[in-house]
Amino acid sequence: MKREMKISVYEVVGSPLCVASGDGQKVHNRLAAVIGAGHRAILSFHNVSTLTSAFLNAAIGQLYGPFSEEKIRCLLKVEEIAPEDAALLKRVVETAKLYFKDPQRFEQVVRETLEDEQDGA
Amino acid sequence: MNVEASWRDSHSHRFITTFKVLPRWRASTHKPKDCFLERIEIDMSSATWFEADMCAALGAILYSLGQDLNTVELTNIAPKVRDVLSRNGFLSHYGRAKIPDRWGSTISYQRFDDRDDHFFARYIESQFIHRSEMPEMSSGLLKKFRESIFEIFSNAVWHSRTQLGIFSCGQLFPTKGLLNFTVADLGVGMRQNVQDYAGFDLAAEDAIVWATEENNTTRRGPIPGGLGLKLLREFIDLNGGCLQIVSDAGFWQTTNEGVSTARLGHPFPGTVVYIGIDTADLNSYSLTTELDANEIF
After folding, report:
1. Least CA distance to A113: which residue of chain B?
2. What is the tally of structural domains in chain A?
3. How far apart are CA B225 and CA B254, in angstroms?
4. Over the Cα atoms of chain B, what is R_g?
5. Is B239 contained in some domain?
6. Which chain B residue shows the shortest CA-CA distance from A25?
């Protein structure tokens, strides 16, 4: 049964300044775990004042490596995001889709993901 | 060792004239056999003016000399230059006292490690947000400016591969309505990155052109990239300010007169990004139509 998990960006980062790639990675780890398990993720940007493409690429852009566009569209929702930040996120998403269309990059990411899973097993 | 520093004020070519000197300076001093455990005196007598934000670039080079266990001393500094370099804290790195910033117009000189994102964020907040001297800017402009600075820092962290840190400094000009901010690193530079990761052997200035175009990226691995410099460029084009990049021997800038490039006589050993914004800009940076959240993915 699909569950709906709410993730607060502010809570994960601990600050309204969501600018560091490392912080984006923390958000990504949670999103990937929820989506990977087939559950729905609702990502809340409540109280977030500043976002960068570096943060969003790490948090969300890299989801397009292991997951299909359909799966992300179906299982990920964002809420309480400022219109300008939503526009930035849309550009990050479009750039990520293009990035992973390069088959070499895609294979590399799949290979690294598999290696990580084997290391963790 | 005595190296003469001879940059001079030239408003329209501020970056080029400064950087023509700095890399030569670096090239002439950065020889391991000459420059290890040395006392390096920088004779500043020819410097009649120094753009405060350029402390980021100068500081980067002097820091690398210090890493080679050299002692750097700046001598014969003209009073006007000494005042600028003391108020923003630059000279306190070289044995001088910091003097109070009477006009509150400096953005202090700082060095950060590549993992210091949070310190950098706090620095930006304290220098730009929580201070009364900041010129009145629209909230949209201030937000875009902060985001741009963070994009520059992230870019330096990701692409420079530097072990020596990232250097920043800025200056406010309240009466001119101008805010200058510069970030420098001593990393591999854009030409090398484009060669290593995109496979193009370009001239240094052409490598900057390539890196600032939409959808071009030297990023590899699971995290996509290639947007930061484009966002910066779009913001500056709308604001009517100036964005300049020096990397290796390449110089690139965009202003309201368009994009121009140049080849420097001597390479800078890394990358420097300068952003100058018009603080009186009344453009709206808010979107008139909201994007449907369901359309993002």
Report:
1. B222
2. 1
3. 21
4. 19
5. yes
6. B223
Q: Which of B118, B220, B238, B296 to mutate to test the interface with A (most CBs of A within 10 A)?
A: B296
Place of tokens 């300010």: B241
- C-beta atoms of B222 and A65 within 8 A: yes
Residue B290 maps to a domain: no
pLDDT in tens, A4-61: 999 999 999 999 999 999 999 999 999 999 999 999 999 999 999 999 999 999 999 9
Domain assignment present for residue B293? The answer is no
Residues β-bridged to residue B166: B112, B185
In which domain, by residue range, is B101 found?
2-279
Domain range holding A100? 4-120
- Tell me the pLDDT tens digit for each residue of B123-159: 998 888 777 777 778 888 888 888 999 999 998 988 8
Amino acid, single-letter form, for residue B209: V
Q: Using an 8 Å Cβ cutoff, are A94 and A64 in contact?
A: no
Counting one residue from chain A and one from chain B, the pairs whose CB atoms sit within 8 A come to 117
User: Could you tell me if residue B284 is inside a domain?
Assistant: no
CATH number, position B101: 3.30.565.10
Q: Please name the member of B154, B222, B227 whose beta carbon is closest to the beta carbon of A92.
A: B227
Which of A15, A62, A77 lies closest to B222 in CB terms? A62
Query: Comparing C-alpha atoms, which of A46, A108, A53 is closest to residue A79?
Result: A46
Full strand arrangement of the beta sheet holding B2-4: B2-4, B39-43, B71-75
For residues B204 and B267, the answer to whether their CB atoms sit within 8 Å is yes
Q: How many CA atoms lie within 13 A of B237 on its CB side?
A: 10
Q: What residues in A contact B287, CB-CB < 8 Å?
A: 83-84, 87
d(CA B112, nearest CA chain A) in Å: 14
Is the ipTM value over 0.85, yes or no?
A: no
Chain B closest-CA separation from residue A51 CA (Å) = 7
